[in-house]
Amino acid sequence: MRKFLSIIAIALFGFMLAGCSEDEGTSEAEGKEADKVKVAYMPNYASLNTVVAGMKIGAFEEQGIEVELVEFADGPTIIAALESGSIDVGYIGPGAHVLPIQGEAEIFAFSQLGNADEVIGSSEKGVKTIEDLKGKTIAVATGTSSETILDLTLAEVGLTKDDVTLMNMDASAIVTAMISGSVDAVATWSPNTNAIKNEMGDDAVMLSNNARYADQFPSIASWLVKPGYAEKNEDVLVRFTKGLYKGMDYRVDNLEEVAKWVAEEIAVDPDAVVQQIGDGEWITQDQLMTMIEDGTLEAYYKKQQENFKDAGRLKEEEMRPVEEYVLFNIMTDAAK
Amino acid sequence: MLIILMLFLFLSSILVLILKRNRETFYIFGMCMSLVIMFSGILLYIAKKGGISRELQEFLFLNLEIKMHIQYYLIDVYDMGYIIAIGRHLFPMFLLFLAFHFSMIPWLQRNYWVKRFTFVIPLFTLIIYYPPIFSYLTNNNESLQQIIAVGTIIWILLYIIISIALLLFEAYSIEMIFFQRKFILITSFILSLILFYFLYFGQDPAQVYQFYSFKTGIYYMNTVLSVPIYIFIVFINVIFAIIGFTSLMKYTNDIVQSSKEEVIIQRKFDAISTGTSVFVHSIKNQLLANRVIFKRINNNLDDLEKVKEYTDRLSKQNENILTRIEELYRSVKANSVYLVPVSLSDVVESALERFNQKFPDKVVELNLMIKGNVLADKNHLSEAVYNLLTNAQEAVNSLTSVEGSVVLSCYNVRQYTVIEVKDNGIGFSKEDAKKICEPYFTKKNSNYNWGMGLHYVRSIVKEHFGSLRYESKEGNGSTFYLLLPKYK
C-alpha cells in the first residue's frame, strides 16, 4: 500500500512539474514575437464583429499584435477580469458603463450605439401590448441595459416595477424561462432575443427596443481597459485600436461575411449570427472622428451618466467629466 | 472532471452512511453533501458567467454540451446564490461538529454547550443571507454588505482553523498505534475535503444575487488555478476519499465490527459439527487413556506402588477433564456478568495469584501506571487476564534462545482503561490472527489447551462493554490489549 501511494505521489508531482514547465515555455516563446493582447468578448455579433474582422484581414498582425479571445457572458464580469489581470482589453454593453464612471475601468474606444435590448411579451400568456404587462411576471437581468429599457417601457404607460412581478435571472435562464412559459414577458438582449423569437415564433411579441428610446437612452457599447493600463501600455493600445478601426471599416461593407466569421469563432449556426446584423448602428473610423470632433460622442456619454443617475444606479457625487474616463486621445492617436 | 468528483463524493458518502450509521459518518456525509451543494451552485454560476478558458471549461464541465445545459438551466439568481450559501456555511459547521466529536479534550467533553453553540453562527449567517432578508438589510447599504461578507469569511476561517487544530491534536494524542494510524488516514481525508472547499470558499453569495451589478470583482476570476493543479487536487481528493472512507469504516466501528465477528464466532460455536466433535473427541481420547490405566491397575493389583502411580495419573486426568468442562461451561455462560466498580489492582492481583498457581517459578513484570476503579465482574475479568498471562507464558516457554519476558501493564488512553499483556514469545502469523479468537482454535498441545481461552476472554471483555485487540509478528512476540471503558 505504502509503495502504491508513493508511486502515485511521485507520478502526480511529475505531472504538476510537467504542467508548470509547459506554461513557462509558452510564455517565453511568445514574448519574442508579437505583443499578446487578451481580449474579452461576449458571444454575439455586436461584441465580436470588429475584432474578428480585424483578425481575419490581418489588421492586428500588421500592428504587431497577437489577439487571444476569451469568452464572457456579461460586462461586469469582464471588468472584474480586467481588474484581476486575467485579460487586457474588454468589450462592454451599455448596462456595465456605470462601472467605468465609478472609476473601475477606462474607455479607450467607442464601439457602437446598440439596438440589442428588447422587451418581449408572450401572446399566449396574454401580453400583446405594453399595457398588458400590468400584473404579469417578467424575467429581467437586474443591473443591465435591458432593465433600463424595461423601466422606460413600463413608464411609458404609467406603470412601475411595483405593478409587475420581477424575476431576477441571468441572461441564459431568461431564455429558458420564456420558452418554457415560466414567465409572461422578458427584458433581455440579442442574441437571446433571437433565440426566443426563433423558438416561439409569433407567440413572441416585441414590445419595445433601444431604438424606441434612442433619444432618452443612448445604448452605448465601448472597449475598455483597467485604470492605469493605458498609461503604461499606450503604444500597444494605440496599435490595437488601429487594428479595430480597420476591422470597423471592413465590417461596414461586409456585414454578412463578418457575421459568418463570428459564427465560426463562437461555434454557432451562421444564420443565428446573421440575424444579429441589425443589433447596432455600425460606423466607420471617419464617422467616429466626426462624432468626436463635433462633441456628439461626449454628449452620448453625458446623457448616459444622467440616465444612470435617474435610474438610481449612480449617485450625484459619483458623476464626473466624461474625459476623465473616456480616453479620447487614444481614439484620435489611432486615427493618425 | 469536477462533476465526476462531486458525484463520487455524493455516492460514496451515501454508501458509507448506509453501511455505518453513526455520528462520524453522519458528519462526513454532511460535509460531502455541503460540498456537493456548494459546487453545484458554483458550477451553475461559472457556466452562466463564463470568462474561463476552454481548457478549464472542459475540466469543470467535461464538455461544452453539458456546460450549455447548465448555463441555460432555469433558476433565479437568488436561488442560485442561496444554494452556494447553504453549502458554503454548512461545511465548516459539520467539520467542527466532527472535530468536537473526535476530540477527547476533557474541557470540551465537560462543556457540552460549546458543541451546541457550533450551529448558531452558520444558522444566523444563513438567515442573514436568505435573499428577502439580505435585500432588505443591504438595500442601499454597501458598507453593511461588506461587513457581512468579511464577518462570514472570518467565522468560516475560524471554524476551519479550530477544526484542523483539534484533529491534529487528536491524531498526535492517540497513543495506541493501530488507532493512530487509522485516525491519521481519516484526518488526511478530511484535510483533502478542506482543500477542495478552499477552492471556492470565498465565493460570496451576494455576488450571485447581484449577478450583473456586483462591484468588487468576480471571486472565481482571482482564484483560477492552472488546469494541472485542479486535476492534482481532484486526484488527491479521490485517493484520500477512498482511503478515508475505508479507514472510517474500520475505525468508527470496532464495536459493530466486533459484534459482527461475534455473530460469526457464535455461529461457529453453536454449530455442533466441528466444535463439539473436537471437544467430544478430546474427552473420548482421555477416557480411552483412562481405560488403559484401569487395565494396568487390574493387572498390577499386587504392586501397590504402581497402583498409586496410576491412580495419581487418573486423578490428574480427571481434574483436567473437569477444568476443560468448566471452561466450556463458563464461556457458554459468560453472558451473565455482574458489573460493579472494582479496584484495578485487585483484578490484577487475583489474576497473578491464579497465574502463580500454574507457573509457580515464573515472574510477570508488572507496570501498573494507574490506580483506581473499573466497572467489572472481578472474577470473570481476572480470569480473562489470567488467560492472557497463561497464553503469554506458554508462548515464551516455547522460546529456546532468548530469555522470555511477560509484561502486564495498565494505563488510560483517551476514553479507555487498557490492560496490556505483552510477551516476547513466538508470536503468531497474520493468518492465525484472523482465527485466534475462534473457539477450538489452538496451536498448542491439545491435551491441555482446547482453544477456548481467547474466545472466553473476548466474550468477557464484550460483556464489560470493551474490546479485545492484539498485535503480533511471528517470532517477535505478541501484545494483547483489553480495552475497557474508563470509569469516572
UniProtKB/TrEMBL annotation, chain A:
<dbReference type="Pfam" id="PF09084">
    <property type="entry name" value="NMT1"/>
</dbReference>
<feature type="signal peptide">
    <location>
        <begin position="1"/>
        <end position="18"/>
    </location>
</feature>
<dbReference type="GO" id="GO:0042597">
    <property type="term" value="C:periplasmic space"/>
</dbReference>
<keyword id="KW-0732">Signal</keyword>
<comment type="similarity">
    <text>Belongs to the bacterial solute-binding protein SsuA/TauA family.</text>
</comment>
<protein>
    <submittedName>
        <fullName>NitT/TauT family transport system substrate-binding protein</fullName>
    </submittedName>
</protein>
<dbReference type="InterPro" id="IPR015168">
    <property type="entry name" value="SsuA/THI5"/>
</dbReference>
<feature type="domain" description="SsuA/THI5-like">
    <location>
        <begin position="57"/>
        <end position="254"/>
    </location>
</feature>
Automatic annotation (TrEMBL), chain B:
<dbReference type="InterPro" id="IPR036890">
    <property type="entry name" value="HATPase_C_sf"/>
</dbReference>
<feature type="transmembrane region" description="Helical">
    <location>
        <begin position="26"/>
        <end position="47"/>
    </location>
</feature>
<dbReference type="InterPro" id="IPR005467">
    <property type="entry name" value="His_kinase_dom"/>
</dbReference>
<dbReference type="InterPro" id="IPR050980">
    <property type="entry name" value="2C_sensor_his_kinase"/>
</dbReference>
<dbReference type="InterPro" id="IPR003594">
    <property type="entry name" value="HATPase_dom"/>
</dbReference>
<dbReference type="GO" id="GO:0004673">
    <property type="term" value="F:protein histidine kinase activity"/>
</dbReference>
<feature type="transmembrane region" description="Helical">
    <location>
        <begin position="147"/>
        <end position="171"/>
    </location>
</feature>
<feature type="transmembrane region" description="Helical">
    <location>
        <begin position="220"/>
        <end position="245"/>
    </location>
</feature>
<keyword id="KW-0547">Nucleotide-binding</keyword>
<feature type="transmembrane region" description="Helical">
    <location>
        <begin position="117"/>
        <end position="135"/>
    </location>
</feature>
<dbReference type="GO" id="GO:0000160">
    <property type="term" value="P:phosphorelay signal transduction system"/>
</dbReference>
<keyword id="KW-0812">Transmembrane</keyword>
<keyword id="KW-0472">Membrane</keyword>
<dbReference type="Pfam" id="PF02518">
    <property type="entry name" value="HATPase_c"/>
</dbReference>
<keyword id="KW-0808">Transferase</keyword>
<dbReference type="GO" id="GO:0005524">
    <property type="term" value="F:ATP binding"/>
</dbReference>
<keyword id="KW-0418">Kinase</keyword>
<keyword id="KW-0067">ATP-binding</keyword>
<feature type="transmembrane region" description="Helical">
    <location>
        <begin position="183"/>
        <end position="200"/>
    </location>
</feature>
<feature type="domain" description="Histidine kinase">
    <location>
        <begin position="278"/>
        <end position="488"/>
    </location>
</feature>
<keyword id="KW-1133">Transmembrane helix</keyword>
<dbReference type="InterPro" id="IPR004358">
    <property type="entry name" value="Sig_transdc_His_kin-like_C"/>
</dbReference>
